[in-house]
Design goal:
This is DUF4279 domain-containing protein. With 132 residues, the chain is an alpha+beta fold. Helix content is 33%, strand content 30%. The chain has one domain. β4, α5 and β5 form a beta-alpha-beta unit.
């Protein structure tokens, strides 16, 4: 498995809570926020605030497990706040993975256990580029 580039981010989308409220609840500052904009062309921005905590540019590793672990570690002890947010927000970990060979990312049982405890879904965007 030859991962060329990877990053992970916790994505919280909310019609109710602006990003500053989410940051206060999680006691963690976002790495990026998008405020809801009723005039925006895309539905996502028109309807929801977006709060992101990303490893992009923060973690120098091509090991996707390290990126997922960093995101989980950032909110591991915020289970109660996540539970409250989950009532009105969409919460997931998004992972980007660029490779030039067969195989793919792997999660350990420990990370899967933590994701289950926190009730956080995980999604992958896997790109394959043979010429890299």
């Amino acid at each position: 498995m030859a991962c060329i580039k990877t990053y992970s981010e916790l994505r919280i989308l909310s019609e109710v809570h602006p990003p500053d409220v989410i940051s206060r609840m999680l006691k963690t500052e976002a790495t990026e926020v998008l405020l809801r904009d009723p005039e925006a062309l895309d539905e996502q921005t028109r309807l929801r605030h977006t709060w992101l905590w990303s490893t992009k540019g923060r973690l120098d590793s091509t090991n996707p497990l390290e990126h997922v672990s960093a995101v989980v570690d950032a909110v591991e002890y915020r289970g109660m706040a996540l539970s409250v947010l989950r009532k009105t927000c969409s919460i997931e970990i998004y992972c980007y993975y660029l490779t030039n060979s067969r195989g793919g990312p792997k999660l350990t049982a420990e990370i899967i256990r933590k994701l289950g405890y926190l009730s956080i879904d995980i999604s992958w965007d896997i790109d394959f580029h043979a010429g890299c």
